[in-house]
Every structure is written in C-alpha cells, then in structure tokens.
Amino acid sequence: MRIGVVDLDTSHPENWIPIERDLGHEVVGLWDGGSIHPVGYAEKFAEEHKIPKVYPSLEAMVDQVDCAVIHGCDWDTHIDKARVFVEAGKGILLDKPLAGNLGDLNQLKAWTATGARITGGSSLRFCAETRDWLASPLEKRGTPQTVVCGCGVDEFNYGIHAYSMLAGIMGTGAASIRHLGKSVQRRIQIDYGDGRTGLIVIGETAKWLPFYTTIVTQNQVAYFKADAKKLYRSQLEAVLPYLSGETEEPPIAMDELIEPELWALAARRSWTEGDRAVELSELTEEDDGYDGAEFADEYRKSKYPS
Known about the structure:
The protein is an alpha/beta fold. The protein has 12 helices and 12 strands.
C-alpha cells in the first residue's frame, strides 16, 4: 500500500520507514507539522530517506495514500490529524501514546465502531518476547498471576510502554488502578478483580532502564527484557496487514487497544486524589489527562536547547 508519514518529531519515522518498505509497502510522501523541528527539516529528511514528496498539508496528502502513519509527539493533535484520513476512508497507524484524555480515546472507539481502520499504540504490546512466552503450552507456563512491568524516562510518553507490555501479558479487563507511591519512580497497582495483579514501575531514573517484566504463575517465575532492536518490526508485522486490507480483523480490538492509556489516566487520577483505587468507569472527559502540548514543548527544548 501507499503510506504517508505524518510528523517527524521522534526517531520512529527514520526507524519505521525501512521496515515498512521491507514489508512491501511504498512510502510516497510526508508532512511535518513543525512541532519539534525547524523549517526545512522535512525536505532534508525526505531527501535523505528517498521519499519523493513533501506535502504542504494533510489535505494534499490524503488522496495519494492508502494509509497514514501519525507519529506526532503532541498526542493531543492525533485526533485532528487522523480525522482527515478517517473521513477519506484511509487506514491510520497511530503512534504511542494513542491519546492523553478520555474524549480522544472515545473518538477512536466511535470511529472504529463505524468501520474505520485504526490501530497502533505502543510497540511493547506486540513484543516478540511476550509472544514467544505466551506461545508456550499453558499447562507448562501457567497463568500470569502477578506481573511486574517497568521502564524509565517519564510517566506517560514512555510509561505507556510498561502499561502496554502488561496488557500484552495479562490481557485487559482491569477492575481498578491504584497509585502505590513514589520514591525514585512511581508504582501503580492494576487489579483484575479475579485475584490477579499487575504492577507498573515508571518515571525518570538516573540511568537508562530497559523494558522489563517479571511474570509469576502457579508453575514458574519468568523474567525477560524486550529487545529494542525487534520492537518496531514486531509491531509493524502485526498491524500493517490489517491496514492494507490483507486481513479484515484488527490485531487488537480498539476497546482493548486503548485500555493501557485508560490505566494511565486512572493512575494519574489516583495519585492526584490521595492514592485511592480508581475504577475505569470513574474516568470522565472532564479529567485533566496528560498534556501533549506541554510534553512536545519540553521535547523540543531537549533537542534544540538554544
């Protein structure tokens, strides 16, 4: 299929494009909103990566692509950018985090309920190590009872990876989320209501931490770190066949795909309300959520301090 790249904010576009091509798709053009990089960066990127066209607008791109890959690190702009492609019946791969507030997540649900092809989120939801562990016989590995997932850097832009890794291992359907406190990092408890528990460890650390998990079942204790070199391919292999129409079933239904973001929203509400347990049903579209514009501003300053 013909892919259009939307926003060049992070390292993802340069890492995803070779894989997209290797999987048989054509990157026909790009558009960058300028949230992070200066004027002229898009043209330079296109030349370096042999992308034939830089579009002046999303409207100019939409008729020339089959799928848009939206990478913008200001997640609050994802819905407006996706809308152009949804209304034209195009596929959308939405980079993580999908959204930072309940209203935007509900919009994704509404679109997919009417047939829009939208998927994406964190690559940790699709990591090869989780897939391989789950592929072992259930009677041998057992059912995950207590699972710890963690990473460093920040509480949402990177923290969503830990939430997503947990969802990939334990599944969705959590009953309540509770913030357990913060020393160096935040610790969040995900209760499933059937006795199973997930623990998320996220936030800034002095040194880089890998994406990791410890899984305790009735039969064994397993530990692994996700190989960062495999993450993007694992995700793209899972989602591109759906976006290209090769398969009619999404790799993960939207109700389940957005649950890690819902957990993160509930965790934020928990730590702002005295660390009480928060049920997902308590979340409202009036909740503050996570500010995408604020994150993008900090990210830009980190890349261009002057």
